[in-house]
Known about the structure:
The structure holds two protein chains of two kinds. By secondary structure, chain A is mainly α. Chain A has 13 helices and no strands. Chain B has helices at residues 2-14, 30-47, 49-52, 83-119, 121-135, 139-150, 154-181, 184-191, 196-204, 209-232, 244-254, 260-287, 289-293. The longest helix of chain B has 37 residues, at 83-119.
Amino acid sequence: MAKYTLSRLLLLIPTLIGMSLLIFLMLRLLPGDIVDILVGSDPTVSSSAREQLREAMGLTAPLPVQYLTWLGNLFQGDLGTSMRSGKPVSELLLASLPITVELAVLATLIATAVAIPLGVISAVRRDTGVDFAARVGGLIGLSLPSFWIATLALLFTSKVFGWVPKTRFISPFEDPFGNLQQMILPALALAIQLMAIEMRMTRTTMLEVLGQDYVRTARAKGLRNRIVVSRHALRNALIPVITVVGFQLGTLMGASAIIEVIFGLNGVGYTLLQAIFNRDYPLVQAATLFLATAFVLINLGVDLLYAYLDPRIKQG
Amino acid sequence: MSSSANVLTLDIQNRPARPWWHVPQRWRNPIGIVGAAVVLLTIVVAIAAPLIAPYDPDAQGATRLLPPSSEHLMGTDELGRDTFSRIVYGARVSLQVGIISVFIALLVGAILGVTAGFFGGRLDSWLMRGVDIMFAFPGLVLAIVIAGLLGASRNNAMIAIGLVYAPAFARVIRGSVLSVMSEPYVEAGRVVGSTNPRLVQLYVLPNIVAPLIVMTSVYLSSAILSEAALSFLGLGTQPPEPAWGGMLNLARTYMEISPWMAIFPGLAIMIVVLGFNFLGDGLRDVLDPRLRMS
């Protein structure tokens, strides 16, 4: 296990370097000069002033130097300064992080709590009405645009209850109830697709496992169906499901951007979008790298967990 | 080999006469058929949009934010435009973006995947390492960043979505190519002296089509959903063009007065995406022999 963990950790290094390089190149090679975009066609800014600004921002150095400088600063915890607000990027990101993490975790919990029982029932009662309903329901869940559900949910609560969510984030440590009230709708909207994915996955793996010899053996020795399903089948079927859930947790952190916008929650995705519209490049760069790194680290954690749960993986 | 050929001939001879409309059992897949019908309907609506839409989608009117009525099936928006006509024309945008972006993904993915799988070795491992790095980004984030940096427009949204999906295609295509490459017929082709392009064209590409069809159908639904999301965020199709995501975004401002505006565009997105997902699910049942066995 230690050896496997170490080799996976080592593989992380080239991935992270590649990612940072890709983000850097995307921001540098895409059309549009940062200074021209910042200053616009303002005629009062002379071309020499533009050149000065470019130099001050370190944009005149050759690309490899710029990249290494950025990377070097990154390692010292300096993510740059937001062009728009003048605040350090790290401060902005850290402030928005709890919101995104809470949204993603809450959505995952909701989705898992609903999806796994549904998937198991669907598999155990294969080809019955329940199974068909669950399969169709799963496909519908996959097709529901989260931003539509979120919009409708907002519409519903404001029409029926006259309730509009507060835009200022309420910390769960200050006021757990207020926090939950604020986060439950966005988390639900975010959870729907994941619910569908998890349900379908659980159903598929359960069907596979239920056809295995050890399940037949368990049945043959006269165990009750309940025990066979819960103890022999489900435990094994859940291993791949855990992988999917973990993988989706990372995806959710990105996907929550659109939900954050709708509910006015100042999360990482929302910060990234604002930065894109403001052409706040240091912030775009850092927020993207941040979300991608979180995604990679979560996936690594999931892989390690998977190897721990299913020892066959390590040997492979 | 010869005995199995005999069995096959016998089978054909003994086959009872079937009416011309007979559909093989395995193609009778209710979910797939519903999906195909929805997709077909969407295509017809998109092509025949001028015939179906009762009004010009951009024509502004004095009657704003109307609820649905016999005159305006889905009501009117904040500029008095007929929502139903805009939804009908929006089908064009959705399909166009879906098809073109998946085509970009397919093309880029095929070039990377076939190259990697066909030549193997160091080239393969470098290409796949690059693909892994693309995979290291959450999809929507990458699409938002690419579309946002290129500038908000429909074309850029298509490029962004295409590039985001390309690695997935590259991976699947590489896997299929690798399994095809170990088949005896590829070796036979090599022995008779086929050149590399000819090998790819004649033996490799035709044999990786089945998994690609399923994948394309599923990714079409994701691409349509992503375009709607980008347009919703203001990074895709720009107003006044009728895109469902954009319409939904505008509706947020007016939904207190006119909730209808928020309902119909979302419903349209859901139905079309559902159609493609149903179709993909059905196609998987029909085309994937491993699932058929069980």
